[in-house]
Each structure stands twice: as C-alpha cells, then as structure tokens.
Amino acid sequence: MVFELKEGIFVLDDLRNVSIKIGKVIEEEEEWTEPLGPTPKPGILELRNWDRKLMERYEPFYGPMQDYCNLCTMGPCDLSMNKKGACGIDLRTSKARLVAIACCIGAAAHTAHARHLLNHIIEEYGEDLPIDLGSDVNLEAPNIRLICGIRPKTIGDLRAALDWAESEIVKVLHSTHIGNEEDYTDYESKAMHVGMADHVGMEVADIAQMVAYNLPKAEPDTPLVDTGFGVVDRTKPVIVVVGHNVMYARPVADYLEEKGLIDDFEIAGLCCTAHDMTRYNAKAKIFGPIYYQLRVIRAGLPDIVISDEQCIRADLLSACKAMGIPLIATSDAACRGLPNRNDDPVDEIIKDILSGKTPGVFLDDGEKLAEVAVKVAQEIFKRKQKKELFLTDEELKEEVEKCTQCMNCVFTCPHNLRIDQGMKAGQEGDFSKLAALEEVCIACGKCEQSCPKDIRIINVIMKTGYQSLVSKTGKTRVGRGPIQDTEIRNVGQPIVFGQIPGVIAAVGCVNYPDVMQDLRDILEEFLRRRYIVVTSGCHAMDIGMLKDEEGQTLYEKYPGNFDAGCLVNTGSCVSNSHIAGAVIKIANIFAMRPLRGNYEEIADYTLNRVGAVGFSWGPYSHKAASIATGFNRLGVPVVVGPHGTKYRRAYIGKPWKTENWWVYDIKSRQKVNIEPAPDVLIAAVETKEEAIVQLARLCIRPNDTTQGRQIKLTHYIELSQKYLGAMPDDWHIYVRSEADLPLRMKDKLLKTLEEEYGWKIDWDKKKIVGGPIRHFDAGFNPTIVESVYEKYTRK
Amino acid sequence: MAASGKVKKEEKYPPPKRFQVADIQASREATAVKPEVVSRMVNKAKNPVLVTGKYLLKEPKLVEVAVKFNEKGIPIIATGGSSKPLIEKGVKPESVVFSLHQITQYMLDPEWKGFNGQPYDVVVYLGFTPYYLSRMLSALKHFSKITTIAIDEFFQPHARFSFTNLTKHKELHYEMLSKVVEGLEERK
User: Fold this and answer.
1) Which of A190, A215, A542, A729 is nearest to B102 (CA)?
2) What's the gap in Å between the CA of A525 and the closest CA on chain B?
3) Predicted structure pTM score
C-alpha cells in the first residue's frame, strides 16, 4: 500500500478523536554532493571573526555629518571630539550604529519587496512553481546556496531563505536600540551581516519575478528599449510607473495586451520599476531614474502615474496634483495618504478620480488597478490641452525677473549650483547659464523651498535646458538577470589569473557630483580596455541615455555578454544579487570551491583572487549603503562618488602599515607579507579622473599571475599617467618580479626601481634580485582564514 | 593666534555662512580667519602641507596659488587629478594617486609619518568639492589634533580655521589667496 502524503489535517475513519496534521512534506533530497559548510544560515556571531579580520586591514573611517546624537530622550548629547553621550556611547560607535541602521533600512527594503512578491506569486502560481532560469544556469541562487546552505528548487523553497534574512535584519535592528553595543566594530560587523542578508533578499525577489513573470533569463542579447526624457509619443495616452516593485503595475501591460491596446498607449517607467517593466514587456520604455520624476511630472507628460515603493519622491502626490495628473498608489509601504479603494467598483473609482473628488487612490488589486489606470489615462489624455512644457516663454521671463540673487538657493543646492548667476544672465537675456545647469541639476527641488520669491526654479532650468534634456534619449539593453554558468566557465580563469584585468560593477543611484556624461566616460575607458563592465539600476538606465557622436549608447557599441570588453545590464536594484552571484559562481565553477553554507571561504577567495570592484558614482539611498556593505563582506571593494562620504563611514586600509598586509600561503605553508591589494574596501573619490585610476588599482589581487599582474599594472600606470599626469606613487609595491612589469616600459621601470627605490637589478639578465615585498610563486595559494588554511593543508 | 586673527564684523568680510544651510553643528565651529593669519600659521608650522582637489582642474587661478605655495617650500598632496595641472607647471607633488578619503584616513593615524618622514601638523585645503571636504574635516576635527585650514570659497564649519563664505565674491577670494601666498615665508 502506498500513502501519498499531502499537507493538511486528516481524520482517520476508524480511530475516534484522532486526526493527523501534516505541516510540510519534505521530499527526499536529491543528492547534493556539496558538503555542508560551517555557516549555513549564520547568526550575528558566525562571521564576526571574518568581519574583524577585514577591519584589522580596512579600518573603519568616520566623517560625522552632525556632532549630536538625538535618538533618545536622554539627549540630545554632544558627542563631538568622540565624547560619550548620556547612554555611554561615543561618537565613533554612534556613527557605526547609524551605518548599521542605514543598512537595516536598505536590506529591509529589498527583503520586504521580496516578501511582497513571493507571497503574491505563491498565491497566484502555487509554491511548486519550479525555479528554472534557463538551460544555461544550473547554478541558480548562488547567494542563497552560499549564505543559507539551501538549494531552492521551487518558489516555495525561497521562503526559508527569506525567513532567515528577515530574522537577521530584525536581530540587527534590535542591536541598534539604546543600551546595546559599545564597540564600533560590532556595529560594523552587524552592518556587514545585514548587507549580506540584503543580497539574499534581492536574490529571492529577482528569482521569483524572473520565474513567475517570465523575465529574461541570462540572455546576453535582450532587446534594446527607448530610454530618456524624449521617449514617449505624445499623441498617445501615457501611463507612468514609478518605484521598484513591478508586481503592482505589471497587470497594466497585460490588460493593454488583452484589449489589443498596447500600441495605442505608452508605458514608461521611472526608477527600477522601469527596468522591470521592460524586462516584462519590451514595449515599455524608460524615462529615467529618481531625478527624472519632477522633470517628467512638471512637463505634464503622464496621463496617470502609478507608484509602488522606494526612492519615490515624498511629494509625488502634490507634484501630480499641481499638474492635474491622477496618482494611483499601490504599495502599503507608500500609501501617500490616499483612500484605499480596493473594495469599490471600478466605475466609481474612475468617476471620483475624473471628477477631481480625489487626486488619486490607493489600489493594489491588480485587475482593478489596470482597468482604472487605462481608462483614466485615456480620459485625461482626451482632456489635456496642448501646452508648452514646463513654462511658456512669457512665464519663463516672469519667473527669472523675480530673482534678487539672494543666493539662498545656492546654499541649499546639494551641488551649490550657481542658480543666481544663471538668473542674472537670464535677466539680461542670456539663458545659456541656466540651460547649462540641467546637466548637473538632480531636480531635488530644495532650491524652490528656500526661494523667498517662490520661483519655479526647476521649471526654469528645464525650460532653458530643454534641448540638452531631450537630447539625452537613447537605448538601454533590457536587464538580463543572472550570468550563465558557461560564461563563468569561460572567464573564470582569466579573471582569477588576471588576464581579464577586472570586473567593474557600476550600480546604484544618481547623486552624481557632476555631469552624467562622466559616468559614460568612466565605463567606456574600461570597456575599451577589455574589462568586463556590469551594471544595474539607475546607472544602467543613465548610460542608456547618453549617445556618442555616432549616436550610439554604450549598449549599442558593446555586446551584452559577461566577457572581456562587454557591457552587461543585469536589471533593477534586486538584480544586483546576480553581480554578487557571478563572483560567487567564479569560486565554485572555476575553482570548485563548495558554496553550501561556506561563506567565509568564498569571501576570502574573492578578496584574494577575483578582481571585481563595485562602483557607485552617485550613491544616495540606504539600499546602496546596504548593497555596498554586503559586497564588502564578500571581499569586493567599492568606489563611490563624493556624495558617498555622507554615509559617514568608509573602510580604508593603510598601505604603510606593512604588518597588516599578509596571507597564509597554502602551498609554502608560510605566512607571507603581501602587497596591499586591494588597499581599500570602500572609499569615496572626488573626480572621474580619480575614479578611473582607483578602479584600476583596486582590481589588483595577490593571486594575479605574472601575465595578469602585468596587464593590470599596465592599465593602472597608463591610466594614472593619462588622468593624473604621473606614475602612480605606489606602482612599485605591486611588482613582485620583472615579469610583472609592463613590457613597453620594462627597461625604464627597472631603472626607476633601482635609482628611486634602491632595488637590486641584475642588468645582464634584466632581473630583479632584491626589493619586492615578495617574489612571485606560480603555486601561490593565499588565504587569510585559519580554517581554510587548515582545510587545504590537511589534504 | 585664533582670537587675534578672527574676522571681525567691522572688517567687512562676507559672513561665515555655511555652504549648506542644513549642515548641523555642535560645540566647535571653524574660526573665520583672514589671509594673513593663514600665512602665519603655515609659517609657524613644523610640517605643513597643502592638499589640493578637483577645482584645480577647473580654475587656473587655484593652480597658480598652489604653485606659489610649493615655491615657498610647502609640499603638496595632490588628489582628484589635481596633480596634472600642477605637474605641468613643474610641481612635484608628494603624492598623486591617493584620494582625499585615503589621505585623511592616514592623517587620522598618529603613527603615520606623512610622505616626507614626519607627521603633518598644519594642513591647508584648496580646491575641493565642499561637501566632500566637509566630511574629511569633520573626521579630523573629532578624531585628531591636526590643525585644518580651509581656504576655498566656502566657509567650512568643521575646519579648525576657514575663510568666510566668498562664493559671491570671487575676486575677493582670489585676492585673499594672493595675500596668503604673499605672507608665506620661504621654508628651508
């Protein structure tokens, strides 16, 4: 007799008062040959030693934004000069606590997003929906495998990973309550812990939506979609989606397809929802990132706006209202003060919106939302009068005339833009200075808040800079999701040995220090030099707006494979997990290191071998802080733009402290002093010139072969000469033997090593015989983790 | 020195308005100083250094000022690519490749001997993005004893000493920079 077990409550007929409850049927585990590592589903303590090891090298740096703490009622406390507050916490620790809080917020954002999606998808498709990421991805969910020790096969299996992430985030959040930690390194360890959990949350979210919504699965040649301010055909109704969770707005595309209306409407997105809409339906378009919200709304382009969650302006409703654009809020994370109309009939909701009885509604019932959005957009479009965008010429003149050059705007602008000078020139009939501001303005609107004359400064800048604004319209390659196993197989060795000089992962927000073009310039420098460039989120859409003289964006110039000289767009914020995933897969697929619950070994592997560097040119969100900190724990250094200093904390090594730079060499069974590679885990740079040179340096790893080091040093030196006008000060410390030297400069560099650094050179053989920190050894096998050393020396 | 060098109202310097009105302060805010005081502090320092940043790539006048500092024997740590125009003018910076973030981290360590073998005691900042410099000055204010002097056009509240806010008075700023240079004594 065979019993088929199912979940539920069962009454046995012949036995009175006996019932059996089966909670979860665990099917026989298909053989997973990987041994279980030491830290599946780690708690706060399990990886604390790893974090401390990192912090011994990369000491936390704190640049406080404010000298007070006012988190509790015993304060406010003056913590300046590292004083202690009423609770006993000092400035350094209080700042570390703030960083941990920021990372909790960021990790919670992705994880709650994942929970929303997962619950919804399980409800709609059932928990048995298999995780199939295509024939080229057998190693799916590398973050979950590595961190949780789980190999999810169905959507339902993702719950266990998400349960773990949620639990850890709550535990770390608890630790930030008054009266817990007193050492800043413990808060830093916790920040890294939630940063790591964030990558699990992101992975759950993206896998769930890829599987359920059939988003592209690791395909390198996804479609190119229109991107930028000028993307929409204004002869059609325009539906604008804004935020980060496509789950809510997705039914709108379905509805339009079902009704055969998809070509009669425009769907365009702002922020990562835009990415995910294009992944879902490539007829959707991308307006741009967060700082395009006011640009698009003030221009009156949308006929309806649908908001979901994260990075949406907190004055979205009033901005829409001022332009007569209805708003539908869909996420319980951002209800926007709107009435919940889920229980009302569609016609009634539409009537109330169109009559102006309500400026918008909260509606998360997908079917209703789709019908309401489409019908309202249709009607608003019909009613819309043709108007000049932003301002008429007359209005522009009136606005500019009001300016008294009080400069309040200048000292509230995050970039101290000289709006006063632009206005003055405008009063004299020259609008070019105002127009030029469009390139750097992030349209945050703080200037308008400070203006005593209530000048609509953003409108003035956008009106005068319209040509520049509309010219930034191009193509983005739709986010492809994960990296294929075969791609990793092809590039794993050249990355680890250094022949592919590095992987530059450009992710994050748009709080750039200068013109957007800088981002393209930076990335193209590395693409030309055959680094692998990976991107996601706002960076990925901004480079889709910028064309070169031939009218091509980077996506049109460089293929979408994960290979040298290629540009990979993984997708939205949550697709960042695939970048961490690619790094993890290198250790597994190329080096056969086991992943299952084996975090420390893989992070150690990455730090010593995988020349991948994160790059966030305009970081602003908590999510960016959390993602970066998660990368740092995984051994991936990150370079941020100057606004990144406002996260208040960095991890910066001190190359001159030679005692900090060592590894165990598994081959020679010795502790070996090494070059400081990488010498930073996270730090900010000020200019694009500096960013380029720092990124090149941070790709150097102790494990580079001589050929790899030679290639990396060539780029580092060339870029330093090109952008800084000189050799980098520290180039010599990365030289282990003459074979590391760039070929074209070899003789000259040998001479410099002898004359300036006192190295001994055998000129007959052109060999270095004395001077380097260490000599190159082909079998060098570095680790900084004792247990890893023991594991591999035991064999 | 600070008291006598402090900018007084009657001296008609622009007010020390913060570069960001929302920048929150505590007990110690920079003393707004005149150019002569900057020169005096640099002259009296044991091991002063000028750190330069981004705006040297945009304002040739700042390059001229830095060159003159260097001609008086004050070493330069060039960050953000500011090394390029300086090298073109014959300056040999102490370092070119480290970011201000890294340099600040090094300076926070009392064991660091600088690039020339002894710790810097007076550090002058020229040509920086104000919010970026602000975080560095904050770090040095709270966690070091180094005397920091900001001579950019923005008043930097976290510095120990700073020019007032000269954003509206570019010519005055340049004049003040020239006065600083004029007051510098040749270092041996």
Assistant:
1) A729
2) 16
3) 0.95
Q: Tell me, what's the pLDDT at B1?
A: 37
Judge: A683–B99 Cβ closer than 8 Å, yes or no.
Answer: yes
> Residue A647: which of A89, A83, A64, A105 has the closest Cα?
A64
The answer to whether A239 and A325 are in contact (CB under 8 A) is no
Based on the domain organization, do A127 and A192 belong to the same domain? Answer: yes
**Residue A463 placed within a domain:** yes
Residue of B nearest to A407 (CA): B168
In B, minimum Cα distance to A647 occurs at B135
Note whether A26 contacts B: Cβ–Cβ < 8 A: no
Q: Has residue B1 been placed in a domain?
A: no
Q: Cβ contact (<8 Å) for B131 and A646?
A: yes
Judged by CB atoms closer than 8 Å, whether chains meet at A686 and B100 is answered as yes
The predicted pLDDT at position A10 comes to 64
Q: Which of residues 459-518 of A touch B (CB under 8 A)?
A: 513
All residues of chain B having their beta carbon less than 8 Å from the beta carbon of residue A64 are 138-139, 142
Q: Which of B102, B129, B143 sits opposite A652 (nearest CB)?
A: B102
More confident residue, A53 or A776: A53
Chain B contact for A654 (CB, 8 A cutoff) = yes
User: Which residue matches tokens 């003060």?
Assistant: A337
Give the mean pLDDT of A217-239. Answer: 96
In this prediction, residue A7 carries a pLDDT of: 65
> pLDDT-derived band of residue B2, with 50, 70 and 90 as boundaries?
very low
Question: Which residues of A are less than 8 Å from B100 in CB distance?
Answer: 686
Strand positions, DSSP E, A243-339: 266-270, 285-288, 304-307, 327-329
d(CA A101, CA A190): 9
Q: How far is CA A121 from CA A126, A209, A223, A554, in A?
A: 7, 8, 25, 35
Distance from the Cα of B83 to chain A's closest Cα (Å) equals: 6
Number of other CB atoms surrounding residue A263 within 10 Å: 11
CA A426 vs CA A412, A415, A452, A456: distances in Å: 21, 20, 18, 14
pLDDT digits (tens, 9 = 90+) for A623-673: 999 999 999 999 999 999 999 999 999 999 999 999 999 999 999 999 999
pLDDT (0 to 100) of residue A268? 97
Taking an 8 Å cut-off on Cβ atoms, the answer to whether B27 and A67 are in contact is yes
Where residue A126 falls (left for φ over 0; alpha for ψ -120 to 50; beta otherwise) is left
Q: Is residue A581 part of a domain?
A: no
Is residue A740 assigned to a domain?
no
- What is the domain range of residue B168? 28-183
Residue B21's pLDDT is 81
Q: Is the dihedral of CA A48, A52, A55, A60 positive or negative?
A: positive
Which CATH number do you get for residue B148?
3.40.50.1220
CA A325 to chain B, closest CA, distance in angstroms equals 32
Q: Select from A213, A248, A264 the last residue of a domain.
A: A213
Task: Specify the residue for token string 């100083």.
Answer: B33
Q: For residues A44 and A189, give the distance between their C-alpha atoms in angstroms, rounded to a whole number.
A: 8
B135 contacts in chain A (CB < 8 Å): 63, 65, 645-646, 648
In which band, very low, low, confident or very high, does the pLDDT at A30 lie, cut at 50, 70 and 90? low
Give the minimum alpha-carbon distance from A686 to chain B in angstroms, rounded to a whole number: 6
Q: Structural domain tally of chain A? A: 3
Residue B17 lies in a domain: no
